[in-house]
């Protein structure tokens, strides 16, 4: 995958209207405009943290504008998803992750105007719907949102258990049904010995058929984990480690039109969230995630380069990620024709 054309931009330059930004999401529209969103404010989980958005038209990014800002409470982890002619922007609201809940706004005019915020699942505490990465749509029209919760460990005060699942919608994202949780061998997990939590969160999904769905997961165990489903995401195999390192930081993958998988991640092993978040690389798999290679290095200098998001359209891949918590970086990577 070295035969590519790569273009890098910053979505905005300094001075920006917030001190810190993180957790970007990206989507490509039918007219090839690119939408990006992220959370920004004084610092993560501060009361002034809002969801910000920018649109890329003809290669240029617009000035960032607030997309969601409910006064006096932190906003987290926006996720953009395009389904038919509608764009959904999901995000979390809450003072602490264990108590946050999911809100959604929608647009039918390319992101120019949005509906009023609404709860995705009434009564939700802990977070339903997509937790950080984009949903996928199966051949039968079902939407699968990669989800997870971070809950307090009832047996160990001050510790948490992380659990992943999938939320499934059969009606275009209006209502959601929660899958079974991804089984874990928690007794063998050592993350809580090094840090505050053990478990798996923030899945990224792809499919290899009508009912065959797969996920890669962020873990507290020093490596990326995987789980598989043969019933459209309703139930999952016990999660197992892959050969890919993980620094307890976000990952994202996308399936290209020829079936190749593209994965963006930090190839660093670590148990805590203060593990190094550099370098940041893009790797490819042509055997359904069994092996990975053809690495493209996106960042390798000191600093934090984290929480990537990736989508694809045709031969083009679009990637955003946190750049030192002060900017959001963007790459467009195009595969050259082999002809």
UniProtKB/TrEMBL annotation:
Residues 34-315 form the Sialidase domain. It holds the Pfam family BNR_2. Gene3D superfamilies: 2.120.10.10. This is Exo-alpha-sialidase.
């Amino acid at each position: 995958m070295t035969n590519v054309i790569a273009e890098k931009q910053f979505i905005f330059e300094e001075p920006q209207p917030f001190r810190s930004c993180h957790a970007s999401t990206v989507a490509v529209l039918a007219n090839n405009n690119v939408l990006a969103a992220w959370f920004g404010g004084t610092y993560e989980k501060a009361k002034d943290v809002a969801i910000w958005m920018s649109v890329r038209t003809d290669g240029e990014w617009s000035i960032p504008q607030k997309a969601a800002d409910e006064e006096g409470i932190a906003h987290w982890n926006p996720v953009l998803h395009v389904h038919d002619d509608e764009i959904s922007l999901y995000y979390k609201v809450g003072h602490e992750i264990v108590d946050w809940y999911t809100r959604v706004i929608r647009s039918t005019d390319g992101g120019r105007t949005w509906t009023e915020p609404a709860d995705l699942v009434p009564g939700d505490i802990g977070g339903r719907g997509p937790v950080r990465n984009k949903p996928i749509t199966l051949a039968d029209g079902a939407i699968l949102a990669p989800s997870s919760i971070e809950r307090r460990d009832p047996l160990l005060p001050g510790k948490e258990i992380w659990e992943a699942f999938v939320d499934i919608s059969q009606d275009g994202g209006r209502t959601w049904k929660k899958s079974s949780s991804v089984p874990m061998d928690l007794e063998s997990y050592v993350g809580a010995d090094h840090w505050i939590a053990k478990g798996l969160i923030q899945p990224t999904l792809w499919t290899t058929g009508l009912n065959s769905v797969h996920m890669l997961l962020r873990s507290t165990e020093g490596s990326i984990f995987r789980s598989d489903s043969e019933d459209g995401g309703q139930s999952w195999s016990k999660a197992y480690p892959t050969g890919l390192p993980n620094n307890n930081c976000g990952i994202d993958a996308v399936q290209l039109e020829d079936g190749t998988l593209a994965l963006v991640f930090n190839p660093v092993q670590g148990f805590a969230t203060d593990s190094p978040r550099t370098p940041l690389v893009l790797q490819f798999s042509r055997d359904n995630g069994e092996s990975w290679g053809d690495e493209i290095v996106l960042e390798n200098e000191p600093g934090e380069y984290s929480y990537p998001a990736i989508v694809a359209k045709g031969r083009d891949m679009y990637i955003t990620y946190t750049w030192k918590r002060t900017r959001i970086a963007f790459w467009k990577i195009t595969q050259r024709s082999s002809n």
